[in-house]
Structures are given as structure tokens and as C-alpha cells.
Amino acid sequence: MWYRVLKARYGEAGGRLREGGRNSSVWWKMLCRIREGVGNWFEDNIMRVVGDGRDTLFWHDRWIGDIPLRLKFPRLFDLAMEKDCSVGDMKDRGWGIDRGAWVWRRRLFAWEEESMRECSLLLCNIVLQDTVHDTWRWLSDPIHGYTVRGAYNFITTTEDMVDRSLVDDVWHKHVPLNVSLFVWRLLRNRIPTKDNLAIRGVLPFTATLCACGCECNESVSHLFLHCTLSADLWALVWNWLGISFVHVGELQQHFIQFTKMAGMPTYSHFFFQDCLVCYYLGAMEGKEQTSISKYGFYSL
Q1: Among residues 151, 152, 149, which one has the least CA distance to residue 138?
Q2: Neighbours of 105 (CB within 10 A)
Q3: Is residue 87 within 8 Å of residue 167, measured between CB atoms?
Q4: Predicted TM-score (pTM) of this structure
């Protein structure tokens, strides 16, 4: 029922609810922004389990194989007259070679007919169950299914997703190259904070307290997020932006959380990325007595 309400309000395209444009609510825009998070984290972890096939989109949903059929057979999808048909409808029309399910915008070329035969061969052993409804499967936890806690843990503990996003997000034409390079190394904990210098034998382990006098060990996360000086600076940033924000524990998650804030339009993400990259370097320069300025950030 909830899906039907949203579909009636905002519309649907390719089996997905539309964002709705300018007339959509702020709440709905925030939910839509979540799926634009790091990578295709949600779509990569769901799969359609087909029963009668009435609620599964033949081309758009991932229901057979590892990817949707529109990606496995992109040429056939482009030529298909009906792109939003269900699996059940295709089965009823007959998806064998030269059957009624295949309706094209033009006659297929020889190599396109070979692709169609491959698709038909893939479908020949599919048996639908008229008394069973289609369901979703959450691949990250097939036993217990989808939960908010499980999705949150998946996002915050998947290093590959974090690293893939960070590779692209620190390099911008509006930011000087040396600044982007510093932040790239910062997010990988490759700058000479006191804890790193102690590990490499440059400093004794008894001399790793933060230079700001807050009686805490100087690490990357502490220096740029949790130190008294850094925390005060972040409070001024939140006040300037007019938003509420909860610090996460690690710098990588903080970078992603800040630059991809839900509810913000996509073009603003690039603005926040530029600001955050420059802010990190500015925070470092404001701590002239720290080990970074004393030993130089090229020493590692």
C-alpha cells in the first residue's frame, strides 16, 4: 500500500519511484538521496525471488544471474518495444525463439538474433509458480533479511566501498593539487601524526600526547575531529551551514558523511567536497606546533 501511495504521488520509471522534481517533499528527497550513497550499495545487495513473476520487472530487476537483463543484453533492451513488462507477462506470451514475448522496434541483425537466442536459452529452464508471490532477498543477510541495523553495519564496515569513493572524491579542479594530495594521504593515515611517528621510531611512545594540551594521544582522527580545537571549528561550520551533524569515529566515514549529506542536491556535494578538502589542510596549518608541521608531511 505504501509503495502504491508513493507511486501515485511521484510516479515511476524503470521500476523505481521518481524523485518528483521541485514539488516533492523534503522528506522524500532525503530518502531518494540515500540511494545515491557510496557505490550501488543497495542495488548490489538485493535480488528478486520469482514466484508467479507478476511483480518482477523482466528487464530491470535482478532476478536471474548476477545482473539485470537490461545490462546483460543491452542491445536487446534498447530494441525492445516494452521495457517495463513483468516476468509473468513475458512467460505468458512465450519467451522461446520466435514467440510472442519478443517485440522489436525493427528487424534484428544476425548478431542481435544470436544475442536473443542466448537470452531465450537462459530462460528455457525457468518455471513460475502461480500460487507463490514474488519476494525480495537481502543478499547481505539471506537468513534474517533486511534490517536497518544490518544495512548500517554493512555501509560502515565495507572498506572497499569507502576506498572506491575516496579515490574519486578528493581530486577536483577547484582544489590545488598539493591540497588534494595531502587529503588523499590523510584519509589513508599516511601523515606524520605523533602516533605514526612513534610506530616508526621517530618519537618515543611516551611523547604522543596532542600538542594542543588536551591530554589525548595525537592520531589522525583525534587531530582533525575530536581535539578541542577541531571540535570548536566544526561547531562553527555546522552553525554557518545551519545543520545538525553527529561526528563519526573515523575520518574516512566522516568525509563520506559530510560530502554526501542526505537531503542536499547532487551539485552541492561537489561544493562540500571542495570545502572539506581545504578545511582539512587549513586545520593542519592552524596547528603549527604539532608534529605534522615540525617533521613535515612528506617525511612518511
Answers
A1: 151
A2: 9
A3: no
A4: 0.51
